[in-house]
Amino acid sequence: MTETSTDRDRRPLALVTGASSGIGLELAREFVAHDFDVIVAAEDDGITRVPGLLRDDGPGSVIPVQADLATSAGVDALLARARAEARPLQAVAINAGVGVAGPFVETDLQAHLGLVALNVTGAVQLAHEVLAEMVQQRDGAVLFTSSIAATMPGPYQATYNASKSFLLSFAEALRVEVAEAGVTVTALMPGPTDTNFFERAGLEDTKLGQSKKDDPRGVAQDGFAALMDGKDHVVAGSFKNKVQATAARVMPDETTAKVHAKMSEPGSGDTDADADRDADVSSSSGRPG
Questions:
Q1: Spatial contact of 222 and 237, defined as CB atoms under 8 Å apart
Q2: Buried b (16+ CB within 10 A) or exposed e, 246-266
Q3: Of 160, 163, 164, nearest to 104 (Cα)?
């Protein structure tokens, strides 16, 4: 049966950034499976393959947009494409992000500035525009992918953890501001997740990079459910993540920073039983991918 414009107009419209792989791809899959049309965005050309990957997950259309959301022009281009649909965004998952690993003073400054541009500046610009429209229409929901890394300082990933702390605080503040307009804001807080994040960030030789990781599908399911329920946040994935996030909030920052350093220090990876045990018990520095 051929889809009609009426069928299209009846489905709600969602937007997911960082959707070419990992948690973002699985969030897009959740939207399609729940009868949304979804605009998917990423910087890499892998985004063009996403409609085919999600073809069998639901009736909704998948609209790929290749844009560099670390730039103002890229965010503007994505917003223009969303507005060209001539219907409101009901849900937005601000998920795009990158990591930089290694001692801060020994790693490339431009890499850190690029991280801030994508994880923080791009997220702020996109959130400002989509939330303004949602408040005006008095309906909508926004999900920010933060991390359990937001709960602690991150030696050897200082800008990454700081960016995730920013997103968590930002989401919690915005939630209060827009509540009376009927708009909800939710923070997704995964732990280590099986995505290409660790390879891209240069973490493969660390205890953190070699630790057990959650399935991005399960993380996305947790995030989608929390978004639809209007929750303020969700610690996604394994029960261990919930324990770690809770412990990090009550332990002194100096202590959690030292724990993080042992897990993320370059070359700290070890395959013996003691290292595996440490990774399972002590790793309280989550990565969403």
A1: yes
A2: ebbeeeeeeebbebbbbbbbb
A3: 160
Among 127, 62, 64, CA closest to 95: 127
Residue pair 65/41 in contact (Cβ under 8 Å)? The answer is: yes
Q: Which phi and psi angles does 182 have, rounded to 5°?
A: 80, 20
CA 86 to chain centre: 26
Lowest mean pLDDT among 56-65, 120-129, 270-279: 270-279
Catalytic member of 36, 144, 156, 160: 160
- Range 9-282 has CATH code 3.40.50.720: yes
Q: Which two tokens stand for residue 73?
A: 């022009």
pLDDT tens, residue by residue, 104-141: 999 999 999 999 999 999 999 999 999 999 999 999 99
The helix/strand/coil state of 177 is helix
Domain positions in the chain are 9-282
Which of these, 169, 146, 114, 103, lies nearest to 234 by C-alpha position? 146
Structure confidence by residue, pLDDT tens digits, 21-53: 999 999 999 999 999 999 999 999 999 999 999
Active site residue 156: no
CB 133 within 8 A of CB 88: yes
Q: Which helix (H) or strand (E) holds 140?
A: strand 140-145
Model-level pTM?
0.86
Element (H, E) at 142: strand 140-145
18: three-class secondary structure by DSSP: coil
Closest CA to 62 of 19, 119, 101: 19
- Chain segment 246-269, per-residue pLDDT in tens: 766 777 777 777 767 776 677 877
